[in-house]
Sequence to fold (332 residues):
Amino acid sequence: MRLQTTVYEGLRIKRLINSVLLTLVGQFSAKSALFIYSGRRNEKRMEVKNSKGFYQREIEDLRLEKSDPLFTYFKTKSYPITLNAVQKKVGKSQALTLLRKLNIEILSPIFLKRQVEGLICLGPRVKRRKHSEPELEHISIITNIIAIAVHNATLYEQVEELSYTDGMTALHNYRYFELRLKEEALRHKRTRSGLSLIILDVDNFKNYNDRMGHPAGDEVLRKIARVLKETVRENDIVARYGGEEFAIILPNEDKKGAHVLAERIRAAIEETPFEHEELQPNGKITVSLGFASLPEDAETAEDLTYKADTALYQAKENGRNRVKAFNIEMVQ
Fold:
């Protein structure tokens, strides 16, 4: 079957779902189809991940609650069924009301680990005729294959996400930082929209680590990571650069804007209380920050990193707990 080839050719969920709906619409001459899915088991509702035969405005706000009686019914009856038939068995159901408005005729539940996590829905056929039992069986087989494939694709994406995540701070790791900085540098080269980079280092961290122990030091890094995520803009990219160093990629930001954000970060961390921070030389947990920007200071991602790191070194050399912008005199 052509669908099986599609399933095993790739693990990307969006491409997979699109291929599934195209296959179903073609094989069963359906005028429309929906792929409704929750994505993660702890989500309380499902939403449309892909559709065929609908305008976007018709389905963009469609949400089905997992607590709906429809999904309670499917826990005991996992076979594809017509909407009219399941309405008689379930009775009042907001999910069925919404699907009926979209002229859906066939519902096939997607199970992951014995839980209903989605639905494949088919609209009316081009030629008005009922689905036969063999056809419903065929839809059931397709749904089961897709359930396995979507589960594998989800696991793949989760593993891929973990490979780009620092385990201790839950920030992006250095590998992800390198990839994204190169991407953003190329974007800047095309659009000349600006790009800045901040690198920061925890002041006298070794002193704190030696006196309080590594678990306490790790907690300091985790807390700083939280402060960074709360302080940056939504589209900024925060990563653990290594050890007690962090990096923040600022797409579409010039040097002036980078300076404002760097100073805001410095102040936020200085004002944050840390356990036993009085043991530090200046009585507080603080950070030093250096930053540089494209195109003023560099033309490539590698050079931008070098310039921001150079500015950080100057911040530490000039007393710590301060922000330094790169300037050409630093390398002369």
Summary: The longest helix spans residues 133-163.
